[in-house]
């Protein structure tokens, strides 16, 4: 810096530090800088008027979206958050209020150096990271000397606890020294590799330009780790970069609402401090010069009230609350702190309120305290803040449908989807958001055609929470269109393309999953497109189970809900095509591989359920012909049994003929011992009543069991167990009663669990022999009763 250069003051800060924000505010009020330079991407500068608008209420964030055609490495959404106690926000707001020039001096957000992050090949979502302030040999040694548990507690003790001091120069000198030492133990090659040096060179160039152009004084607000490099650049102007990346328009960047939950250090955010609601409370306390009374008392009292309202089972009794306050105060004195801080509050509640052993360091009361100190607040943008139309459209729809967007708290909503049109609209809205990738809600329960339709269910239950990430995710997809329907259509197209890449585009079962997703949104164009894809897959699918799945899943989709379009005609055509395809595939079932048999038998059971329910797409007479033809071939026993039961259900064969067929199979003419009983497994999988209620099939089964010898029975036993395990207890009792009567026994005789005396004697003799063998092997002590 030349002798005629204006004054240049450096302010090393930690992101979202209330103590740093307060010291900065005091420094600016005294120094009255004419230029304020802040470490943030220069291409965010056009958004500064909106960020510092008096109507903006933090927490907010600037979000940068990838270009319309990302290069594969530049496909992430980057965020730069601000809260009320962020020193950067305080500095920029001060500049706006006092007419100072505000400038951002870091590299553009999409610069390659900004993509690099320590320990990861992928960029982190936030543009600011402070891992070096917490993970190095210097900090580890300080923690040990101070007797604190981690670097965050160390920072609190050294700096946040000292916020009340009016000596802002001493504060920044201490922070600067702390950060300089962390830099001294950092490897230069590491800083080169992760882009730190490139960023600092750019910041130094921006700083040199600001000093040269005037006016002064110039205030430089950067992360404390970078401050030493910038002070050296001013002292040695030759070190400044010769070239300068000019400020760029914001492009794909927007100011969005943000939330405390996303700012929490423990949620994966890479900078700042944990528990943002606590530090916001500290900030308000500091700003009012302690007019709000004792901070620790206020926080613990409010926490106790919060528990009484929301989690009464965890409520702190008045004596416990008093003890916690006393403990926090004594811990602060013991730790040489002027007042209890975040760590002292947590330790006090743990000491007073947690009596049981902690599981992995967690306890319900501490979880509740963590949630309380984190907070659910969400910021607000000034009126007219530009947002992609899809974001505002979704917010408007959500409010109109009765969803609470006022904070980030998670809520539960029950929707009467079959009787109330507004609830049905809300369900379609939530499914559309889910398809579009906005993590607003998750369904807890409700009818589901993919896992079992249960169309008689009247209600869906959803858990939802409006977080800034919902808006961020919608903005990230704004390139797909300006409406939620456009986003859904684009996502369906991507999923269809992925099926092609995976070689599953010809799978009707995979296609019908796209159809379900489309139908749930209620968007007509999306449904039409998905129906077309599904029809193409049906025409080429060579797998009968996949075709049957498409028939099964689509069976319930055509049922119109309140306010939904009538899809029955379009679905009838699709399902008719699927049925015709199934008839063509039936002759090939004989070639089904053994490992695919369970899937095929489950599909036959689903087909049977549709046929017996009178599904209009299933032409029973034509199906009966192909089933009888299949049964005339030599099929695997399980599939043979399944198709025999199916034939009985649809009237293709009378029960007497089915019984004769099963009896022939059980004779084992061409099936090896141990597998012949698989015919029963197939029968029971498709129609348990065929065994339970048909005396003909029961007689054939009984004849088989009576005829075989013990060796064959033991070989067959695993398959028999598998078969009869599909019966309910009442069905087992019915079969047992029939078998008892058939062999002249009373039911109580075969159900009696009394062990005959001779069997008891035999077991006791065997036990004695085993005990002798154990003692001979030196295992006698194991037999002793303790």
Number of helices: 35
Compute the separation of the termini in Å.
85 Å
- Percent strand: 5-15%
Number of domains: 4
Portion of residues in helices? 40-55%
Structural class: alpha/beta
Low-confidence stretches: 1-5, 118-126, 239-243
Mean pLDDT: 82
- Please report the total strand number as a whole number: 10
**How do the strands line up in the largest sheet?**
1-6-2-5
Global Rg: 36 Å
> What is the 3D form?
elongated
- Sheet with the most strands, sense and barrel status: 4 strands, parallel
Q: How does this model look, in words?
A:
With 786 residues, the protein is an alpha/beta fold. It has four domains: 8-129 and 188-267, no CATH class; 402-591, no CATH class; 613-747, no CATH class; 754-786. It is built from 35 helices and ten strands. The strands form three sheets. The protein has a four-stranded parallel β-sheet with strand order 1-6-2-5, with helices on both faces. Helix 13 (295-310) packs antiparallel against helix 14. The longest helix is centred in the last third of the chain and has 20 residues, at 757-776. It starts with 7 loop residues before the first strand and ends in a 10-residue tail after the last helix. Mean pLDDT is 82; it is low at 1-5, 118-126 and 239-243.
């Amino acid at each position: 810096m030349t002798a005629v250069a204006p004054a240049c003051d450096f302010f090393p800060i930690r992101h979202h530090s209330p103590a740093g924000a307060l010291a900065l505010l005091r420094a600016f009020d005294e120094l009255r800088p004419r230029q304020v330079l802040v470490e943030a991407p220069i291409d965010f500068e056009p958004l500064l008027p909106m960020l510092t608008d008096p109507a903006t209420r933090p927490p907010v964030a600037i979000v940068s979206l990838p270009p319309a055609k990302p290069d594969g490495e530049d496909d992430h959404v980057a965020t730069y958050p601000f809260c009320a106690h962020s020193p950067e926000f305080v500095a920029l707001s001060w500049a706006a209020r006092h007419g100072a020039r505000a400038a951002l001096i870091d590299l553009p957000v999409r610069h390659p150096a900004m993509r690099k992050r320590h320990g990861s090949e992928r960029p982190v979502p936030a543009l600011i990271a402070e891992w070096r302030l917490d993970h190095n040999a210097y900090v580890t040694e300080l923690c040990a000397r101070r007797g604190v548990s981690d670097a965050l507690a160390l920072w609190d003790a050294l700096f946040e606890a000292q916020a009340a001091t009016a000596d802002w120069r001493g504060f920044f000198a201490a922070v600067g020294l702390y950060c300089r030492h962390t830099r001294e133990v950092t490897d230069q090659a590491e800083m080169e590799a992760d882009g730190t040096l490139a960023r600092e060179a750019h910041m130094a160039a921006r700083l040199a330009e600001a000093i040269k152009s005037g006016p002064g004084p110039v205030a430089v607000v950067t992360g404390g780790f970078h401050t030493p490099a910038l002070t050296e650049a001013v002292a040695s102007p030759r070190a400044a970069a010769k070239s300068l990346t000019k400020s760029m328009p914001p492009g794909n960047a927007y100011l969005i609402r943000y939330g405390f939950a996303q700012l929490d250090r423990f949620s994966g955010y890479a900078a700042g401090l944990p528990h943002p609601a606590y530090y916001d409370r500290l900030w308000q306390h500091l700003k009012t010069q302690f007019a709000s009374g004792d901070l620790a008392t206020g926080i613990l009292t409010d926490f106790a009230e919060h528990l009484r309202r929301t989690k009464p089972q965890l409520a702190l009794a008045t004596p416990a609350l008093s003890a916690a306050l006393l403990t926090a105060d004594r811990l602060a004195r013991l730790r040489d702190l002027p007042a209890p801080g975040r760590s002292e509050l947590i330790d006090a509640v743990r000491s007073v309120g947690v009596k049981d052993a902690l599981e992995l360091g967690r306890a319900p009361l501490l979880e509740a305290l963590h949630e309380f100190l984190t907070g659910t607040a969400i910021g607000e943008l000034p009126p007219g803040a530009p947002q992609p139309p899809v974001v505002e459209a979704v917010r408007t729809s959500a409010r109109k449908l009765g969803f609470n967007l006022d904070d980030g708290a998670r809520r539960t909503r029950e929707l009467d989807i079959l009787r109330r049109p507004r609830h049905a609209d809300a369900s379609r809205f939530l499914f559309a958001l889910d398809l579009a990738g906005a993590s607003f809600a998750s369904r807890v329960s409700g009818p589901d055609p993919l896992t079992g339709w249960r169309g008689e269910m009247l209600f869906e239950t959803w858990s939802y929470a409006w977080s800034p990430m919902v808006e961020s995710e919608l903005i990230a997809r704004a390139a797909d269109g300006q409406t939620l329907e456009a986003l859904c259509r684009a996502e369906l197209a991507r999923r269809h393309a992925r099926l092609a890449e995976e070689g599953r585009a010809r799978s009707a079962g995979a296609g019908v999953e796209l159809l379900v997703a489309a139908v749930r949104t209620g968007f007509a164009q999306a449904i039409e497109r998905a129906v077309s894809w599904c029809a193409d897959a049906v025409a080429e699918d060579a797998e009968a189970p996949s075709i049957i799945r498409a028939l099964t899943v689509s069976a319930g989709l055509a049922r119109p809900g309140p306010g939904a379009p009538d899809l029955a005609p379009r679905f009838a055509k699709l399902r008719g095509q699927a049925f015709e395809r199934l008839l063509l595939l039936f002759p090939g079932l004989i070639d089904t591989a053994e490992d695919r048999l369970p899937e095929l038998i489950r599909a036959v059971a689903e087909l049977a359920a549709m046929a017996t329910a009178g599904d209009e797409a299933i032409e029973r007479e034509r199906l009966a012909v192909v089933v009888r033809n299949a049964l005339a071939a030599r099929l695997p026993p399980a599939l043979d049994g399944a198709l025999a039961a199916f034939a009985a259900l649809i009237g293709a064969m009378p029960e007497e003929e089915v019984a004769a067929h099963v009896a022939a199979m059980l004779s084992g003419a061409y099936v090896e011992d141990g597998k012949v009983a698989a015919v029963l497994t197939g029968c029971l999988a498709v129609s348990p009543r065929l065994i339970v209620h048909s005396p003909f099939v029961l007689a054939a089964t009984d004849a088989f069991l009576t005829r075989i010898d013990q060796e064959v029975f033991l070989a067959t036993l695993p398959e028999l167990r598998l078969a009869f395990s599909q019966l309910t207890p009442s069905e087992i009792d019915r079969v047992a009663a029939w078998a008892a009567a058939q062999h002249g026994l009373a039911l109580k005789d075969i159900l009696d669990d009394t062990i005959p005396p001779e069997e008891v004697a035999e077991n006791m003799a065997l036990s004695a022999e085993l005990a002798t063998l154990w003692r001979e092997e030196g295992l006698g002590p194991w037999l002793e009763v303790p």
